[in-house]
User: What shape does this take?
Amino acid sequence: MTIPGVVIDHTLRLADHFRENEMVFSQYSPALLNRRREKALSDFMRQGIPGRKNENYKYTNLQPSFARDLAWLHRRESTEFRLTDVFKCDVPQLETHLMLMLNGWFYSFQPKNEKLPEGMLAGSLEQISREHPELVDACYGTLADTAGDPLAALNTLFASDGYVIRIPSGTVLNHPIQIINILQTQESSSITQRNLVIVEPGAEVRLIVCDHTLNLNHYLSNSVTEVFVGEGAAVDFYTVQNQHNHTTSVHSAYFHLNRDSRLTTQTITLHGGLVRNNLTVVLDGENSEANLYGMSFMDKRQHVDNFLRVEHNKPHCRSNQHFKNVLDDESSGAFSGRIHVKRDAQKSNAYQRNNNLLLTDKALMQTKPQLIIEADDVKCSHGATIGQINEEALFYLRTRGIEESQARLMLMNAFSYEVVRQIGIAPLRDRISELVDKRLRGDMARCHECAYHCDC
Amino acid sequence: MLSIKDLCVSIEGKEILNGINLEIKAGEVHAIMGPNGSGKSTLANVLAGKEGYEITAGEVTYLGEDLLDQAPEDRARKGIFLSFQYPVEIPGVPMVNFMKTAVNEHRKFRGEKPLTAGEFLKLMREKKKLVELDTELTNRSVNEGFSGGEKKKNEIFQMALLEPRLSILDETDSGLDIDALKIVAHGVNVLKSADTSTIVVTHYQRLLDYIVPDRVHVLYKGRIVRSAGKELALELEEKGYEWIKKENADQP
Assistant: This one.
C-alpha cells in the first residue's frame, strides 16, 4: 500500500517482516535452513530489492512487484480440497512420476508404476532436511550465492519448503519426474520455494517443471533450485511457464556440473506477467557439457527476462545457449548471457545465440551478450538478432495461395520450432508445439483442465 | 486471359514500368526478354501481387476481373503462379506442410474437400517424378539447403501441384546447368495445355529452345520496345541487346 508523500522502503519492510516471523521459522523450520537466515538477511539488506540501478536487473524492475501488499505463507496450510480433483495434467502419452507443489510447499508425489530405485528421494525439503540433514546440509546454499543476488538472499531468508530429489549413483530413471507448481491462495500472496536436486555419479534423470496459477490473485513467486550433476551424470531440465498476467515470477536455477556430465535445459515461457529466469551454470569438471534453450511468447504488457551465466572452470567443456523470443503488442523482453571462460579452461567451446521477433512497433527487446575469456585456446561465438517477420518469405507463401494470417503463423511457428525441436521427450514436444501454435494464434494456451476453475 | 494496358509502376518515386501493353490468350506462351534492369522482374512481381510497388497508371485484367486490387493469395487461388527468380529459404516450415496447406487452400477455393495426408503424399510422389525431385528434399524445410538447380526444380514441382492457369517463370533458367534446364523445361511443357498460358521472363534465349514461345517481347527502360515471333529471341542471342539500346537511346 502506498501513502502519497511517504516513501516506504520495501527492503526494510521485508526485513521487519522477517524479524516479526522469526519465531515461526525457529519453531517450524529445520535447523539447517534457519542457520542460513542471518547471513541471507544481511546480504539482502546490503543489495536491496533490485531496481534499475542494479546492473543485473537493469531491464527488469522488481520494485513495483514488491510494493504490493501481499500475504505470506510461512507455515504449511491444511488444504480444503483434493488437489488431484482440481488439477490433471492432460498431455497424452506423457508418462511421468508426478510431484505436486502447492504455493511453494510440497504436496504429494505419485510414482509411476516403476519400482523406484533404492536410495532415491523425492519429497519435501522440510521433511528430508530432518530425515537426511547431512545430505541436505552439504549442498543447501552452496550454489545459490546470497551475496551475489538479492532474490537468492530473499529466498534463503524465507525458505521453508520446496522439493528435494536425489537420484542415486548409476541409476537411470526411465520416466521423467514432472513437478507441477500450483499457485492458488485465498488472497494475493508472496510465494517462496526452495528446491534441491542431487544427481549422483552416472545417474540420469529428466525433470519437467510446469508452473501454473489456478486463480486470478496477484502472486509474487521467488523460487530457487540448486542442481548438482555428478560425474558422468545426465540431467534434462524442462520448464514450462504458464501463469497469468498478475504474476511476477522469479526463478533462479543453479547448476553445478562435474566431469563428463551433461545438462540440457529448456525454458518455455508461454504466459506470465513478469518473468525473470536466472540460470547459472558452472562447468566444474573436464568434458562436461551444458545446452541451454529458451523460448518465450509475450503479448499485452508482459515482460520476460532471461539472465544466463555460464562459467567454464575446467578444460574441454562445451556450452551452448540458444534463446528466442516472440514479442507482440507492448510486451518487452531482455536477454543477458554471460560466458566466463576461466584461465585454466583451455579447449573450451562456448556458443550463444539470441534471436527475437518483434511483431509490433511498440514491442521492445534488450539483448546483452557478454564474453569474458581468460584462457587463450578457446572457441567462443555469440550472436543476437532482433527483427520482424521476413516479408520475402511471407510473400512467397502467399503466392502459393496461403492466407496472409496463416502464412504469418507458419513463419512464427517456424521461428519457434528451432528451439522447440530440441525437447527430447516426444509427447512433451508435441504438446509444446501445439501450445505454441495456439499461443501464436492468439488462443489461450492452456495446457490443463483448470480452464473450468478460472479464467486466467 | 491476361490483359495489361498502359501499366506504369514505380518504387519509391522511381518509375520502373513506363506504359506496358500486353495481351495474352489461353494456350499461348509469351517470352519477355530484355537487358538487366529493364523491369522484367518488376512486371512479374506486380502480376503476382508483391507489396511495395506503386501502380501509378494503367490496368490489368485477368479472366475478366481487375487483378491489381487482389491479394497475392487470391490471385494464386485463381490460377496465377509465380516461379521465383530467387526462391526463398524458410527454415522450420516443412515442404510437406507448406504444399499440403497450399493445395488445400486451392481446393477450398474451388469448393472441393481437402486432401487427406495419404492422398496428398500420393499426389506429391506423382508430381515429384515430373521434375525428378529428390525425395529427401521434400522432407526438408522449404528450400533450405537446396542447390540453385534444386530450388528451380522445386518451383516447377510446386507449379505441378497447384496446376495454375497462368504461370510466370521469372528467370527460371538462371543458375541451371543444361540437364536441369531440360528437366525444368520438360516439366513446364507437360503442364501446358490449351487452357493455360505461360509468361517466360528471361535474359537469355537458351531456355526458349526448350519452351518455345508464341510471342517474344523486348522490355527496355520499362517499355515493350519490340514484339515479334520466336525468331526475335534468336536475333537477340546473335546481336545482344546493344542494338535495342541504340534504337531506343532517345527514350527518357
